[in-house]
Recover the amino acids of this structure.
């Protein structure tokens, strides 16, 4: 029987984020009926150490699920499936009783920075490109486990398994150890082409293979809700739970970016520009991340910038920290300034940079200031500087493989029409907005719906759930102007790095 005909049925999408857990109730018509959210904090026991308590995740999930069900006003008995997503790269170390042996080391952690080059150097560069498809970075599970091998060997000796944040919640829900290709491929322990754990990568990190959990495709059911978890959440037992996906893959799914050749841009605190492919498109210089998608036989390649919306927020607060302007007012004033801000450039590297520089020590700067420049010029330069950083990512993507000339765009920064206009012309692509919110948790719910047969297939899920808005087209003149300006922008980072 085609179960999606039961329009009163719903599925849950749970997102274990960095700052909070969220739950979305998604019905069979593709409508988000209710959302719940509960926050938690970071642990910072030493400089550059960023950890979280997995129990805090679970407690927050319980609150978020109950809140979402109340907001949706649906009977708990109508919940047909549960999908999960969460922050990527982290490491939850489980002991013999499958309880955490220590706080989880999450993606923000930098304690392994000195080890990354050493560990990666244990393998030929060609093997790293072929197997991992990514540079080993601090905060990746492989790097954190390499650090544990040196600094806390007793912890690893006691360990039975290492899982990702969303996998820990799957464990609490079902009692099953599991992961999925999208999260596993972000550990630097997984062969992204063969979609299996890699002896070579695990060996370089000093990780015993027996610690790595079974991997199932994201929409595969890995267990059912056990009675103790059902009681905590206010649900019935035996609801199917799928493997889920890492947050970026779930975000792509929630935005409908599933077919090879599709691309998306997320402009939030930082930013990502992503292209989906039917085979791994790996940058030989490892300036990009290439991970498995939440769909079999799909991968995505991503350029990431660290300073997107955070750069505009910083500039707004510099102008007046006591009475910050509305972003709409900032952008309205900047719209009166011509493209190029009359020779003013802004390097947006306030928190270092990832693609393409991979330089955590990179810093920001205004360059070309004169007495004719106003606050509005500087705002426009900030918007353009972020757009130029995205173009750097786009050029790295073009070096790795084909890229589309049309991208979907989402995130808080994408709400500003001026910023979308600048991005479309700097990148030379059309940009179509994604409607709605909570796309990451919605993507997780879509996976739960596929596992529970609430949706017949992925095509039906996307058709029912995803909605698109207006499209920004590049203009020939502005595109040509920004191409010249971007070439000048690219000369600034190496010049400033030389005097750092």
């Amino acid at each position: 029987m085609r179960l999606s005909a039961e329009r009163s049925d719903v599925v849950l999408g749970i997102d274990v984020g960095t700052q909070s857990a969220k739950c979305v109730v998604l019905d069979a018509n593709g409508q988000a009926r209710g959302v719940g959210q509960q926050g938690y904090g970071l642990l910072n026991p030493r400089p550059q150490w960023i950890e979280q308590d997995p129990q805090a995740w679970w407690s927050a999930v319980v609150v978020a699920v109950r809140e979402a069900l109340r907001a949706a006003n649906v009977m708990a008995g109508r919940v047909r499936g549960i999908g999960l997503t969460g922050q990527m790269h982290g490491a939850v170390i489980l002991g013999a009783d499958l309880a955490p042996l220590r706080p989880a080391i999450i993606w923000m952690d930098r304690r392994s920075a000195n080890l990354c080059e050493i560990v990666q150097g244990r393998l030929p560069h060609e093997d790293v490109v072929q197997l991992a498809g990514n540079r080993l970075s601090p905060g990746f599970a492989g790097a954190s486990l390499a650090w544990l091998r040196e600094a806390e060997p007793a912890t690893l000796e006691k360990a039975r398994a290492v899982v990702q944040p969303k996998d820990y919640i799957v464990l609490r829900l079902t009692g099953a150890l599991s992961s999925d290709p999208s999260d596993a491929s972000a550990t630097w322990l997984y062969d992204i082409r063969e979609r299996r754990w890699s002896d070579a990568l695990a060996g370089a990190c000093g990780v015993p293979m027996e610690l790595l959990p079974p991997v199932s495709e994201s929409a595969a059911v890995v267990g059912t809700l056990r009675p103790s978890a059902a009681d905590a959440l206010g649900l019935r037992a035996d609801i199917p739970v799928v493997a889920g996906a890492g947050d970026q893959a779930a975000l792509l799914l929630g935005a409908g970016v599933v077919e090879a050749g599709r691309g998306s841009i997320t402009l939030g605190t930082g930013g990502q520009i992503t292209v989906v492919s039917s085979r791994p498109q790996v940058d030989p210089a490892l300036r990009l991340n290439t991970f498995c998608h939440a769909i079999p036989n799909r991968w995505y390649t991503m350029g990431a910038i660290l300073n997107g919306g955070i750069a505009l927020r910083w500039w707004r607060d510099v102008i007046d920290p006591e009475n910050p302007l509305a972003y709409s007012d900032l952008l309205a004033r900047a719209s009166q300034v011509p493209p190029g801000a009359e020779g003013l450039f802004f390097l947006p590297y306030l928190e270092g940079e990832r693609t393409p520089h991979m330089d955590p020590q990179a810093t920001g700067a205004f360059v070309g200031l004169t007495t004719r420049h106003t606050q509005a010029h500087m705002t426009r330069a900030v918007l353009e500087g972020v757009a130029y950083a995205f173009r750097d990512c786009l050029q790295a993507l073009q070096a790795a493989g084909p890229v589309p000339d049309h991208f979907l765009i989402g995130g808080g920064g994408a709400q500003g029409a001026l910023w979308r206009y600048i991005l479309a012309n700097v990148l030379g692509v059309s940009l179509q907005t994604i409607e709605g919110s909570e796309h990451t948790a919605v993507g997780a719910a879509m996976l739960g719906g596929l596992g529970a047969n609430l949706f017949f297939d992925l095509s039906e899920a996307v058709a029912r759930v995803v909605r698109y808005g207006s499209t920004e087209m590049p203009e020939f003149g502005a595109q040509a102007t920004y191409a010249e300006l971007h070439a000048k922008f690219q000369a600034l980072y190496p010049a400033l790095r030389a005097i750092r």
The chain has a mean pLDDT of 95. The chain has 17 helices and 22 strands. The longest helix spans residues 375-400. The radius of gyration is 23 Å.
